[in-house]
């Protein structure tokens, strides 16, 4: 264990170099060819044979397999690599200048996974089975994980378990360098709905000659919120947010159509299904009761992030050996934000953990997706060490 910790600390300058290069060259969505090429070059430079690296998975994703000398199963270490369409305002010497920004720490995630690869390649004799490093594009648009899965990234060799992390300041009351874990539900699903209410337009002075879709929208908004307040167990976390309402073109004209658009976030799979069904039922019944019609487009996003308890317990053990028990803490409550690592965790048992990488003492208080978001590079060895130690001890 001491070896792994020391080795990860020793290569910190290299991890930082990887992070800074990726940070300075952010790419979006599935179109990440430069980042893909950089990762492949880094892996080959540390000794991965070209035959063990596959690129172009689900767009520009990369998978690299490290085979151990001892028979065993395959662990995947997943890191996301895409950025956001945000103009950077950090003032860093390696700040991006192309109008995009790594404002969600995916540059750090990729660098820490590369650090783990560099450590583990020197421990193949002790490694049971294999480790598949998965570098995923399009997390921000929550389509990259599914694209890679559909492209076969969990096969050849078949992945038996998976581990991943997110760094920054996602949860309060943690100190920089600590690790947060969650047994079970950690982050929510993220679905989108688009409701079109159709009526009959007319003049505002003669409402009796119209079928008012804006009135329908007002009634429907109240009814939809009763799904949460009256149909779901109060201790079952759920969010239904309507973020956009559009209808009408003049103050004195009743339009023929009104649109509502929103999102549903839940932690329970059964609750997720029930909420979708009730949105459809209440929308249609509300419109019809007022003489109108309705259409509902419901688009499922990533499912909830649900950690496997046994894998999480193994993570806790690894992290505690490296950092001490006091620095490995349970996350007090789940986030209603989403992460498409959930698609991987639907397929294989695994755990997604929180790496506290932003340091308020260094002015790193800005949240994710902010143009001034930054992380403390001194913490990057921690993610690499935990990944490597876990890979050597999970089976």
Automatic annotation (TrEMBL):
Binding site for Mn(2+): 104, 106, 140, 166, 369
EC number, as in UniProt: 3.5.1.14
Co-factor binding comment: The Mn(2+) ion enhances activity.
Gene Ontology terms for molecular function: aminoacylase activity; metal ion binding
Enzymatic class: hydrolase
Alphabetical list of NCBIfam families matching this protein: amidohydrolases
Domain Peptidase M20 dimerisation: 193-282
Family under the similarity heading: Belongs to the peptidase M20 family.
Superkingdom of origin: Bacteria
Keyword set, alphabetical order: Hydrolase, Manganese, Metal-binding
Keyword Metal-binding (UniProt): yes
Name under which the protein is recorded: Amidohydrolase
Lineage, opening ranks: Bacteria, Thermotogati, Synergistota, Synergistia, Synergistales
InterPro entries: Amidohydrolase, Bact_exopeptidase_dim_dom, Peptidase_M20, Peptidase_M20_dimer
CDD domains registered for this protein in UniProt: M20_Acy1
Entry keyword Metal-binding: yes
Cofactor requirements of the protein: Mn(2+)
